[in-house]
From TrEMBL:
BP term (GO), one: dGTP catabolic process
Gene Ontology molecular function terms on file: ATP diphosphatase activity
InterPro entries cross-referenced by the UniProt entry: MazG-like_dom, NTP-PPase_MazG-like_C, NTP-PPase_MazG-like_N, NTP_PyrPHydrolase_MazG, PRib-ATP_PPHydrolase-like
SUPFAM superfamilies found in the cross-reference section: all-alpha NTP pyrophosphatases
Species of the source: Palleronia salina
Reaction(s) catalysed by this chain's protein: ATP + H2O = AMP + diphosphate + H(+)
Lineage: Bacteria, Pseudomonadati, Pseudomonadota, Alphaproteobacteria, Rhodobacterales
Top EC group: hydrolase
Domain NTP pyrophosphohydrolase MazG-like: 35-108
EC number: 3.6.1.8
Protein name: Nucleoside triphosphate pyrophosphohydrolase
Protein family per UniProt: Belongs to the nucleoside triphosphate pyrophosphohydrolase family.
Amino acid sequence: MADPIHDMPDGLPRLRAVMARLRDPERGCPWDLEQDFASIAPYTIEEAYEVADAIQRGAMDELRGELGDLLFQSVYHAQMAEEAGHFDLDDVIAGITAKMIDRHPHVFGDESRDKSATQQTADWEAAKARERGSAGVLEGVALGLPALTRAEKLQKRAARVGFDWPETDQVAAKIAEEAAELAEARDTLSPEKIADEMGDLLFALANLARHLGVDPEAALRGTNDKFTRRFAHIEAELAARGSSPAAADLDEMEALWVAAKRAESRG
């Protein structure tokens, strides 16, 4: 007997039916039946990063697929929530729809659209603050964010109530202070304390990025990509010589690194 799912038209109802079948206790997939919110959450984060990666590379065909994977994550969590009696996908959609209407009174209400993107961002944050009510200033900054991104968001929240260095030079001085403390910790303190000092330095660096208007997570991703490109150049050049990084010395690899930098700057 043919499965009716095969005859359903493409769209969200069919996707929901697929998800429900995967979780069906009698006919579902054993792997999917074993999953819960905690076990699926890492996949949700991974799919979000894969969306960002496709965007960064301008890979529109891949982006279509990655957005589908990310959408499926929302459907997956909503299905598990429905099974547990918490909410369903319709509740999720209704909630986000209402939020977008409420957060855009200059589009769906009587407010003027004649304001800058900066003012709209400030209004958005003010609306979020009203929704938090009497909650603490730093409450609601997701624990699951990448550490650099979370550091930036925590600092932005604190800055809105005046807890912030007024000058960039003061932030730079704090970085020098934290770097010196880390160097001292290296020789005198425990591994735990060294890790603590390293965290302080990274937090200060994220603060400087915020003051300079730089997304620290995006900046580090860019540097990771740059490092990958240049190291690939080292590997390719060494391979052409019948060698490899493991067989080369540091001076030889450093010279190839400098050559890769020069080639990029000329490009």
